[in-house]
Design a protein that fits this description.
about 270 residues, mainly alpha, Arc Repressor Mutant, subunit A, Tetracycline Repressor, domain 2, repressor, Homeodomain-like_sf, HTH_TetR
C-alpha cells in the first residue's frame, strides 16, 4: 500500500475512535509502523493530512459523477446522480460530523477554498447533465435548476448528517427525481442568468505538466498492478499520443474504480475530452 494511502487510512481509524484533537501524529505513525520523518515527507502537519483526506473524498465524488454524467443513459441519469451523491455522503457522515465538531474553526479558510473548487466542478457537471436531459426546454431556466438541484443535495444531506433514523436512499433519490422533473417542466420565471454564473463556471483544465507530476508521484507509491501499468502507459500517451481512443478509454477504465487513481482518470478524461 502507498505510504500516503496508509497514513490516511490509519489516521481515519484513529480519528473515528478518538477524534481529531486527541489523535497525535505519534499515534498515527505508530499505527502505520513508520517514523515521524516518514510522515512529514508526506504531510507537513496533521491539518494538511485532514485536508488531504477531504480532498480524497471530494475527488472520489467528482470522478464518479463526471463518469456517470458522460456515460449513463438519460433514462436513469438523474436517479443515478442523486443515488451516487447521497451514497457517497452517507459513507462519510461520521467524518463530516467530527469535522464540524472539532476542525471547522481551525481549517476554515483552507476548507472554504477546497469546497469552492469542489462546488465549481460539481456545478459544471450538473449543467452538462440538465442540458442532456431537458435540452431547449430549460434554456432560460437551466441555471436556476442547477441551484435547485444543489439545494436538494445540501438540504437532504442534513438528514443523513443529523438524523439517527435510517434513510432509504432509493426512495430519496426517486423523490428528488420527481421534484427535479417538475421544476424543469414547469418553472417559467428565471432568476439566475448566464452572466451571473460567470463567477462560478470557471472550468480550467489541469495542465499536462500538472497531470504528469500527479502520475509520477502515484506510480512511485504504487506496487506492481494493472492500475500502475495503466498509469505508465497513459503517461507515455500523454507525452506522445500513440494509442487509439479505444485503448486510452480501456486504460482509463482500469483506473476508474481504484480509490487512489480515479482522480487521475477524471483529469485525463477532461484533458482529452473523452
Amino acid at each position: 500500500m502507498a505510504k500516503k494511502q496508509l497514513i490516511m487510512e490509519k489516521a481515519l481509524e484513529l480519528f473515528a475512535k478518538q477524534g481529531f484533537e486527541a489523535t497525535s501524529i505519534q499515534q498515527i505513525t505508530e499505527q502505520c509502523g513508520i517514523s515521524k520523518g516518514a510522515f512529514y515527507l508526506s504531510f507537513k502537519s496533521k491539518d494538511e493530512l485532514i485536508l488531504a483526506i477531504i480532498d480524497h473524498f471530494t475527488m472520489q465524488v467528482l470522478s464518479d459523477i463526471d463518469y456517470l454524467v458522460k456515460n449513463t443513459e438519460n433514462k436513469t441519469l438523474l436517479y443515478d446522480f442523486y443515488q451516487t451523491m447521497f451514497d457517497s455522503f452517507q459513507q462519510q457522515t461520521d467524518f463530516a460530523k467530527l469535522f464540524l465538531k472539532e476542525q471547522m474553526h481551525t481549517l476554515n479558510e483552507k476548507f472554504v477554498n477546497k469546497m469552492y473548487s469542489y462546488h465549481k466542478s460539481l456545478e459544471q457537471m450538473i449543467l452538462t447533465m440538465v442540458e442532456r436531459l431537458y435540452g431547449e426546454e430549460i434554456e432560460t431556466t437551466k441555471y436556476d435548476l442547477i441551484y435547485c438541484i444543489k439545494g436538494f443535495l445540501n438540504t437532504y444531506s442534513q438528514i443523513l448528517l443529523f438524523s439517527e433514523a435510517p434513510v432509504d436512499l432509493k426512495m430519496l433519490s426517486q423523490s428528488l427525481v420527481e421534484k427535479t422533473n417538475i421544476l424543469a417542466k414547469h418553472t417559467t420565471i428565471p432568476f439566475i442568468s448566464k452572466e451571473m454564473t460567470q463567477m462560478f463556471f470557471v472550468n480550467e483544465k489541469t495542465s499536462k505538466e500538472e497531470i504528469l507530476e500527479i502520475i509520477e508521484e502515484k506510480t512511485e507509491e504504487m506496487a506492481e498492478s494493472i492500475e500502475r501499468e495503466s498509469l505508465v502507459l497513459l503517461k507515455e500517451h500523454l507525452l506522445e499520443q500513440t494509442f487509439s481512443p479505444a485503448i486510452v478509454k480501456g486504460l482509463l477504465e482500469n483506473l476508474r474504480n481504484h480509490p487512489h487513481c480515479k482522480w487521475i482518470s477524471y483529469l485525463l478524461r477532461r484533458y482529452w475530452e473523452l
